[in-house]
């Protein structure tokens, strides 16, 4: 992930970065070298070169922040409602086991809020709101049993991916 929690830059951080670009634009007008500007602003020379090209092509207004890439489709209130639904557990929503998968959360959102998300969009939404994706710490029992059933001579166990269904 590029940024912690997968949520991109905060508003404060966007304004800070915009300030850096505008300071660089002032220095472009004075004819300062990109390497000097990069060192003083503590950014990469490549970033300054990219900003300079944008400044030359479209002017200083092009260096202003464009705002967030997209607005969240679930409001804060709706996300709080989603968390309440998730707290009820998967069994309350018709699943037999107690695992929340991205597909299941996506289904709950579709049923409750009549919105559709992709699986990747689901992950981003959850991570942005402080949830984390968990991976099982051990192999499923079925996989281990299948490996034991397919032992080869010499006591070696074949990889489950090599065994097939």
Q: Round the Cα radius of gyration to an integer and report it.
A: 25 Å
Q: Termini separation (Å)?
A: 33 Å
Main beta sheet: none
**β content, as a range?**
under 5%
How many helices? The count is 8
Weakly predicted, low-confidence segments: 1-6, 150-163
Q: Give the number of DSSP strands.
A: 0
Cα shape: elongated
Helix and strand element order: HHHHHHHH
Structural class: mainly alpha
What is the average per-residue confidence, as pLDDT, rounded to a whole number? 79
The proportion of residues forming helix, as a percent range, comes to 40-55%
Could you explain the architecture of this structure?
The structure is a single chain. 54% of the residues lie in helices and 0% in strands. 7% of the residues are buried. The model is unreliable at 1-6 and 150-163 (pLDDT under 50). It contains eight helices and no strands.
